[in-house]
Amino acid sequence: MRARTLRQLLGLMRPFAGWVALSVALGSATVVSAMGLLGTSAHLIAAAALQPSVAELQVAIVGVRFFGITRGVFRYLERLVSHGVNLRLLAALRTRLYRSLEPLAPAGLGQVQSGDLLSRAVGDIETLENFFVRGLAPVLTAAVVTLGAALFVGSYDASLGSVLVIGLALSGVGVPWLARRMQAAAGRQVVDARADYRTAWVETLQGLGDLLAFGRGTDRLELLEASQARLEAHQRRLAEGNARMNAVNLMINQFTLWAVLAAALPLMEAGRLDGIGLAVLSLVTLASFEAVLPLGTAAQQLESSLRAGERVFALEQVPPVVPDPAQPAAPTLGADLRLRGLSFRYPDSAEWALREVGLELPLGRRIAVVGASGSGKTSLLRLLLRLWDAPPGQIFWNGVEIHAYRADDVRRLFSVVTQGTYLFSASVRQNLLLARPGASEAELLEAVRQARLEPWLAGLPEGLDTWIGEHGRQMSGGERQRLAVCRAILRDAPVWLLDEPTAHLDAENERALIETVMERTQGKSLVWVTHRLTGLEHMDEILVLDGGRLAERGTVAALEAAGGLYARTAAIQRASFPTEEGTFSDGEPS
């Protein structure tokens, strides 16, 4: 699993291979400049102690200046390039995550907590931002610098180069290996604990009203504090491991220096190395460890990154509930929708949501689907929109089985208005452009006029560019629903699907919305799903669902005369709400 995740992360970086190579080269140049700075400084100080002429020190003086300047320049350029690579990697990750989520929504995401999804999209992606800068780049830079340092020190004597390579290997390979063995669990636990903490927070914020209403706010606070304590404990354990690792690295650094000095003393006795060269070797040895010291942290960051990557890529392993055909058919002109014996039940459910439902909806026909909660009304719309997939051979569009089309192509055939229309925290214009991104100002204003929202829009301080707040909370229920109708008008699809659009409206707003919809759907097909029996006289046919089965069908007059389920429900509504039609059953949509 870890190897596959690593390959996937490296695969995302393949398009940026040139930038990666440049980043590694600049990182290596930074460390080499640091080594050069200390080496030439040692040479200058040691040589100056012998009081030669200034001319003999000119090369060392220039070298100190050169390496002092280039070290800062290379470090700046390395950070610039490496963070540029990092941002490109994060952009690719976010795009990939969205592309893996889109085919799963909404059916495939039903078993995933919204807080966990948020943690993957935010927390795990933030963890992966360390993958290149602190995980991969230091390893590549250390490999280049180790080779260069070994060659330089080995040029004095092969034994010196061997000692340095052993020290660098212990610090750059041994310590990270040991740290990963000891700290691997801590790195994974931090990622998981952070995800649990954010999930708990999202659920708390979403259910805050109910928690306070039932007096369970204190209990929830204790749960959050416990979750935070677990996260802090894992982070503390990780930090303590980093401290121990840094101490071991410092010890190896010093022992390597002493080992190089011990190996150099015989060379001095043999006259093959002078005091100035010994000073240069000492400081170059110390400076070369700058390349390998980050590798211990890199090992820990790699473990956390791999765990975060597993969580992000895991969504790609979930098969889409609504797969697209390998060779999709092109949607044809016309609007002839037919259901033939439609039967459907949700996974892991023994109950049928729909059973042997049939209907014909040629262009211009209006149908209402009514029934109590759980009767299958909303399930019917989900199947038409391919949010869930019906068994093959039961839904046809212009005579072609619906599975032959791409899900997106099917959804373009419908204008949808739901009872819980989602409005983004954006302007009126941006919320309307969701339905037709290329709509002009005139088209937007015309849709507003047709939806009878002109007086409301005229009262806004910035017109279409007015910010409406999160979920459109600055709007009334009727205004939100009319804005949803605006979207449907802009969509201009041949079939309108309305799912309980008047469920939360008063009688006046309800009738006004019905009039608007009926006016705008002239010449189009309409499927109106509702538990309220208001405005159904406009329908060509009414389907009454009961327990997923088609119990009755016909016009208002025919169903009233039949004295069946529809007639009994209508009588109950009239008796319970003499001034307006009431609700069917408990008022919740199925």
Descriptors:
9% strand; disordered C terminus; six-stranded mixed sheet; four-stranded antiparallel sheet
Topology:
Elements: H1 2-13, H2 17-48, H3 58-101, H4 114-128, H5 130-154, H6 158-206, H7 208-213, H8 217-269, H9 275-288, H10 295-314, E1 337-344, E2 354-361, E3 366-370, H11 377-384, E4 395-397, E5 400-401, H12 407-411, E6 414-418, H13 428-433, H14 441-450, H15 454-458, H16 477-491, E7 495-499, H17 507-520, E8 525-530, E9 541-546, E10 549-554, H18 556-562, H19 565-576
Parallel strand pairs: 3-8, 3-9, 6-7, 7-8
Antiparallel strand pairs: 1-2, 1-4, 4-5, 9-10
Brief account:
The chain has helices at residues 2-13, 17-48, 58-101, 114-128, 130-154, 158-206, 208-213, 217-269, 275-288, 295-314, 377-384, 407-411, 428-433, 441-450, 454-458, 477-491, 507-520, 556-562, 565-576; strands at residues 337-344, 354-361, 366-370, 395-397, 400-401, 414-418, 495-499, 525-530, 541-546, 549-554.
Would you write up a description of this structure?
The protein is α/β, with parallel strands linked by helices and 590 residues long. 60% of the residues lie in helices and 9% in strands. It contains 19 helices and 10 strands. The protein has helices spanning 2-13, 17-48, 58-101, 114-128, 130-154, 158-206, 208-213, 217-269, 275-288, 295-314, 377-384, 407-411, 428-433, 441-450, 454-458, 477-491, 507-520, 556-562, 565-576, and strands at residues 337-344, 354-361, 366-370, 395-397, 400-401, 414-418, 495-499, 525-530, 541-546, 549-554. The strands form 2 sheets. It has a 6-stranded mixed β-sheet, with helices on both faces. Helix 3 runs antiparallel to helix 5, helix 6 packs antiparallel against helix 8 and helix 18 (556-562) packs across helix 19 (565-576). The longest helix has 53 residues, at 217-269. The chain is elongated. The protein starts with a helix and ends in a 14-residue tail after the last helix.
